[in-house]
Amino acid sequence: MISLNNVFFTRQDGGLKRQIINDLSLTILPAAHIALLGDSGSGKTTLLNLLAGLLSPDAGTITVNEQKISELSANELALYRRKIGIIFQHYQLLSPLNVKDNMCFQARLNGLSPSDDEVNTMAQKLGLEGKLTAMPEQLSGGEQQRVGIGRALLNKPKLLLADEPTGNLDAARSHDIVTLLKSLCEEQQIILIMVTHSQRLADQFTTQLFLKDGQING
Fold first, then answer.
1. For residues 205 and 34, is the Cβ–Cβ distance under 8 A?
2. CA-CA to 155 of 20 to 30 Å: which in 65, 87, 113, 209?
3. 39 lies in which domain range?
4. C-beta separation of 217 from 26 below 8 A
């Protein structure tokens, strides 16, 4: 479960301070799947970064699975981030590594050793069978994004944060990627929070939250 209580976050823009998150309180239940929408600059990515421990709130508390991440040290936050899944819009694959090693990278960093059976099963679910020895530059955009999903899920997280994960894909591929992502998270009972600007993609989620003026509506 995730709990945010009276969270504030201010960003310095030049000489001005801008309130991005304003006294936000929110509870997210285990295994929930949530689409997070809002206008450009509304703070969607900031909220995701707060949940990822990449930013610290100015005030308030953030608790993820009984761990109060808003009070962790830098070293503790680094360990926390290893145990969650983050999917980026721009894939962030490591070019010297093939598909298999990219998919296993975060899990290995976290001290896990995915078996060949686990990797092959995940590759099959992602439609990447036969691609495990390929290099990132040999893949299409959709295939690279699926490698990113596999990398996040082989780490066996309880929380998966996806920031515009289909932003570089066409409408049909975007729909397929989100459908696949939701299905795999349902299998593993993972909390999924996906930032999107697309109402069409958000409509695939039963829970939609709208961020406006630093507050959640919806």
1. yes
2. 209
3. 2-217
4. no
Return the sign of the alpha-carbon dihedral for residues 154, 136, 50, 204.
negative
pLDDT in tens, 100-117: 999 999 999 989 999 999
Strand 191-195: give its sheet, edge to edge.
85-87, 159-163, 191-195, 33-37, 207-212, 215-217
Q: What is the largest CA-CA distance in the chain?
A: 55
pLDDT digits (tens, 9 = 90+) for 124-161: 989 899 999 999 999 998 899 889 999 999 999 999 99
Q: How far apart are alpha carbons 56 and 202 in whole angstroms? A: 27
**pTM, to two decimals:** 0.90
DSSP string, the chain: -EEEEEEEEEEEETTEEEEEEEEEEEEE-TT-EEEEE--TTSSHHHHHHHHTTSS--SEEEEEETTEEGGG--HHHHHHHHHTSEEE-TT----TTS-HHHHHHHHHHHTT----HHHHHHHHHHTT-TT-TT--GGGS-HHHHHHHHHHHHHHT--SEEEEESTTTTS-HHHHHHHHHHHHHHHHHHT-EEEEE-S-HHHHTTSSEEEEEETTEEE-
Round to whole Å and give the CA distance between 172 and 160. 23
Number of domains composing the chain? 1
If you search the block for the tokens 């981030």, which residue do you land on? 81
* 157: amino acid identity, one letter: P
